Each structure stands twice: as C-alpha cells, then as structure tokens.
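Quick note —
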Amino acid sequence: MTRLLSLLALLAVTTPAFALFAMTVPVEDARREAIAAEDRGDQSQALAIWRSLADKGDDEAEYQLGQHLTRGPASAAERIEGAHWLTRAASRGHQGALEALSALAAGTAPVTFSAGR
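Predicted structure written out below.
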C-alpha cells in the first residue's frame, strides 16, 4: 500500500511537469506553422492557427492574434476582440502585448508586429 501511495505521489508531482514539456513541442511546431503561413501570405491559415493556440492559453498566440485583429482594415468588433487577446497575453506578462496595449491606448500602432518571434 505504501508503494502504491508513493507511486501516486510521484505521478502527481511529475505528471504536470511532463505534460507541460510534452505540450511544448507541438505548440512550437504550431507557432512555426503560423509564421510560415504569414510568410507565404496565407493570413486566414495563420489566424486559424494563432486562434487555436490562443484558445488553449498560449500567451504568444494571444499576442499574435491580438496584433492581427487590431491592425490594418479591421472592423470595430475585430479590434475589440484583438484588444481582448492582447489583454489576456499582457495579464501573463507578455511584454509585446503590454506594449501593443499601450500603443492602442495612445492611439498609435505598435512599431513591430512580431517581437515575440
């Protein structure tokens, strides 16, 4: 019984760390796919990837999605959604998102688009 409890305790401690490590590789691959889609001009594919990652809580994806939605010929609804994603990323300390929100508040565009790359 003691061995079983020890094993369960070990799994409880190591599993979240291992799960986080295991999730890192696919997230990095997906980020690279989004950047590649942007580079070839496929904005709809890039947005779909960034949105998928942002929905899962990836702060870089939240930042990138927010940047996409607040720049260029965006509707008011898109700008509001973009500010939402930037706020989520900023709440986790993402420096680019903090700067983008500051620029939005000042009414200016951020200087760089992909500082997090």
